[in-house]
Amino acid sequence: MRHKILVVSSLFPLPTSPHRGQFVSDQVRLLVQNGHDVRVVAPVPWLPKWAERKRPNFKGVSKSPSYFEFENIPVYSPRFIALPKQPFPQISISSASASMKKVLKFLGEWVPDIIHIHTLFPIFKLGKKLSEHYSKPLVATVHGWDFDYALNYRRLAKHQRKSVVMLDKLVTINEKHKEVGVKLGISEEKVSVIPCHVHVSEKYQREFDTDSSSENFTKLNILFPADPNRKEKDYPLFVSVISELEKRSIKSEVKTLGGVGREKVWEMMHWADIALLTSFREGSPQVVKEALKCGCKVVSTDVGDVSDYLPKEAVSKQRNPEHIADNVEAALNLNNNSWNFPAIFEPDQVLSKLELIYDSNT
After folding, report:
1. Which of 40, 36, 52 is nearest to 14 (CA)?
2. pTM of this structure
3. Backbone torsions φ then ψ of 199, nearest 5 degrees
4. Which listed residue, of 110, 200, 208, 234, carries a Cα 20 to 30 Å from 39's Cα?
5. In 3-state terms, what secondary structure has residue 108?
């Protein structure tokens, strides 16, 4: 069954910030390629310029147009007020939902079968109003921040708890977040785990190189698969691991990601002997899955769902340089059969699970 799907997401690529929220646009593209009719509302934060400069993931947002097309898909991008560290979250929630009339004008006579929001804060209220206006079900995908960060702050946590129980369906990207959702009060049968699928151009997909050993490396090409300026990625820990490897007579050439196009990312994954993710928190990190698809080994701190599919030697249970350096050496010593790309991240599996939700809720 083909559906009209209204995607509302505060994470979505913008003409002036094309790398923003690509995991959401990948899903939108997947739906359209398989015959679904999709419109996108992509609320973006208005921040003081000094605040935007301090937050690399908001670079270019202030200059983005309100209306544009993404691969021929109509997109409306209203502004909402976002204060640094969200001391008064209700301001962002109310300002995002205040765009309701303009959203309806943007949609015109096009009526969705389902409203699918990505993230709860600050767009749940807008999604709920649209759901009530059209008398259509509301589905929400939580990508990580809503549960990993927001629940640690009283005002934000109150909003998240109220939002979760009012959903017709909650989608989480890992099992840990499913458990959080159930604890917040939504019934288990209303929760589905659907990680984001991985989109890597076929020409960049490759098998792992011939078996390696850390003893063969006096110099490693190590990729930090994130923007070093994003605090949650913990670049200082990464640097400490590099220093620890040097103490072990393993020198490194390091490259980092951030503000580069996707093909450049995949090229860097081909260059790297290993990628090292040192994040404090992740949901289901796309860079880890993309690295595996590109034939690049990965070591990661124990965040999100990485322990579900990476070899145990490649997942660091401790956040200290010595332990992570041990993981790097152990990962390099693993044979190629130890590394695999789980089928649950393939586009066809993700699509079938999404369509099952849409079919059963319309």
Report:
1. 40
2. 0.93
3. -110, 105
4. 200
5. coil
